[in-house]
Design goal:
The chain has a single domain, classed as P-loop containing nucleotide triphosphate hydrolases (Rossmann fold). It is about 35% helix and about 10% strand. The protein contains 12 helices and 6 strands. The strands form 2 sheets. It has a 4-stranded parallel beta sheet, sandwiched between helices. Strands 1-2 form a two-stranded antiparallel sheet. Bound molecules: 3'-phosphate-adenosine-5'-phosphate sulfate.
């Protein structure tokens, strides 16, 4: 989410959320014209799209898929950033950039379903949707807003809580995002995974992804993918950790993409009243949605 503009020489550029066909884009980062073209991009069977609401594990998937492409050989990934090899759909500059990307073309995106290539609905290409429990998403996004210069700095947690609940952030409403994608899952080649299952058992999720993508990796190669995709390793891997983003966009002194990487951090920020309110909204908005989430680390420990 943090690249794609060329404001490295600007003293100060005012980024703001701008409504485009019912979805907020970030002015100066996203081009509404290019975003509108995505719908008509021709899709090949080998195309892969990782779809996430912000702060749900996007860069984690970039690392996993990148490593899978090189069969777990991390030395083969040293010369290029993950964000260059697996770019953001909403940040590409033109259709030509998409068309000429080497196969398999792998992209990540926070865009809602309605903007994505029509071909996906004809079961061309593959979609991996990564969801994370929305309370942890909210907290991770709050911390991200404090150091991301292209997003409005929240006054405090309460202020951000309100913005998130109203969907007044890039990505819009979490509930609508997950519902819009998951309600169309049968139209696409679609794999749904969660951040929490990756925390619980990364290896089995990596195996699931490999099988979905038809990748034949040996057990050792799979081990390598898993080992190189742990929080600790990624945090220190400049190809994966987004430390290359210029300070004009991310104030690295105030935060990091690889922040905590855990489940249940919402408990450090939510008040009891906020938690109750969130639960009420969650129950109401998700009442017809057959998805469940893990809210705390203790739920991950099998007795
Ligand atoms: S963004 O800005 O939307 O692209 O951010 P995104 O990559 O989706 O989400 C960032 C959060 O994912 C965590 N992360 C990980 N957690 C555990 N293990 C690994 N390997 C990993 N990689 C990324 C990252 O720490 C952010 O979560 P928080 O809660 O802020 O730590």
């Amino acid at each position: 989410m943090a690249e794609g503009c060329d404001h490295s020489s600007c003293e100060a550029f005012e980024y703001k959320l701008v409504l485009h066909r019912g979805f907020k884009l970030i002015s100066g980062i996203h081009s509404p014209e290019v975003v509108d073209q995505i719908h008509n991009f021709e899709i090949q069977d080998s195309d892969v799209f990782v779809i996430t609401y912000p702060k749900s594990g996007t860069i984690w998937l970039q690392q996993i898929l990148r490593l899978m492409e090189v069969k777990g050989d991390v030395t083969a990934t040293n010369d290029q950033l993950n964000s260059e090899c697996i770019p953001w759909m909403e940040l590409i500059k033109s259709e030509q950039q998409f068309v000429s990307a080497p196969s398999p073309r792998i992209h990540v995106s926070h865009l809602p379903y309605k903007f994505m290539p029509f071909g996906l609905k004809q079961k061309k290409g593959k979609v991996i949707y990564v969801a994370r429990n929305p309370k942890d998403v909210l907290v991770s996004y709050f911390h991200f807003h404090k150091y991301a210069n292209m997003l409005e700095t929240p006054k405090d947690f309460d202020d951000f809580f309100e913005k998130f609940m109203k969907g007044n952030v890039f990505g819009d409403c979490w509930f609508e995002h997950v519902k819009s994608w998951c309600s169309h899952k049968d139209e696409m080649n679609f794999l749904y995974i969660t951040y929490e299952e990756m925390i619980k058992d990364l290896r089995s999720v990596v195996e699931k992804i490999a099988s979905f993508l038809g990748k034949n990796l040996t057990p050792q190669q799979l081990n390598n993918v898993v080992e190189q995709s742990t929080f600790k390793i990624m945090k220190n891997n400049p190809q994966a950790n987004y430390q290359h983003i210029p300070d004009i966009l991310l104030n690295h002194k105030l935060g990091s993409f690889m922040r905590k990487g855990t489940v249940g951090d919402w408990k450090t920020c939510f008040t009891e009243a906020q938690n109750e309110r969130f639960d009420k909204v969650y129950q109401q908005k998700m009442k017809d949605v057959p998805l469940t989430f893990i809210w705390d680390m203790s739920e991950l420990i099998t007795p």
